[in-house]
Amino acid sequence: MLVCVALTVLTVTGCAGNPPTNSLAAPQKISSNSISTTSPTGGQTASRNSVLNPGTINPQPKWIPIPNVVLARSPVPGQSGEQLELVDVKGNFAKNPIVGPFQGNNWTGQFQLWLVDPLGRIVSKLSLPPNQYTLFMRNFQFHFADYNGDGHPDFTIGQRADSNGYWYQLFTIKSNELSRLPTPSSELFVSDFTYSPLLQRVQPNGFALKYYANSQAKWFKATYSWEGTKFIQSDVQAIPPSG
User: How far apart are CA 81 and CA 83, in angstroms?
Assistant: First the structure.
């Protein structure tokens, strides 16, 4: 059984050009002089084609195409030096100065998970659904655990849902292949605000998560267990108020 691991991520702000099919692109820093400081009007889905128009009351952002940006990179436990990466392969970047949940760095584009061996060769790729994974705002680290008890490293990756938390999907690395672990719904809502949190392990082959339900003004704890080929929700209970 794997031990949950929190691993240091290599922060890369950008890289230029398309890498060979068997190697990573060399990273390069994004020039602060080339980054627009205008305001996106569409939140997560601000138009990538809009340009800064001097003299307008509400100037639009100028998105900069920056392919193959590595947003996360972490060693994979038990994988002989292999690393897991999140790569924005068709990336667009802009800064959002508007105070709110999307203020700051915004990376949009097409996101892929890459499993890379010690020589820099890509062993496995998995594209994240573009209609679900639309925006990342910072570098982060992956957290691994064996949630289904099969001896292989699993991990979460998600996106902001609302002010109460993020939604997540579960993935695994098995026989040098990246794949998604099936859950009752395609997305699991968790009152967490990181891109790859470590969930609470439940023995022998499950996990638990907590979330706040606005409609009921209550906290809940949901438990999931692995049944053959997928996770099922085995229990959900309201969490009594403390104090």
Answer: 7
CB 25 within 8 A of CB 174: no
Q: Is the N-terminal amide bond of 97 cis, ω within 30° of 0?
A: no
Mapped onto helix, strand or coil, the DSSP state of residue 222 is: strand
Q: Note the pTM of the prediction, 2 decimals.
A: 0.76
Residue 123 · residue 115 · CB < 8 Å: yes
82-110 residue pLDDT tens: 999 999 999 999 998 878 898 889 999 99
CA dihedral sign, ordered 168, 89, 83, 182: positive
Q: In terms of residues, how long is the chain?
A: 243
Contacts of 78 (CB under 8 A, 6+ apart): 2, 152, 153
Burial class (CB in 10 A: 0-12, 13-18, 19+), 221: middle
- Bridge-based pairing of strands 92-96 and 104-108 is antiparallel
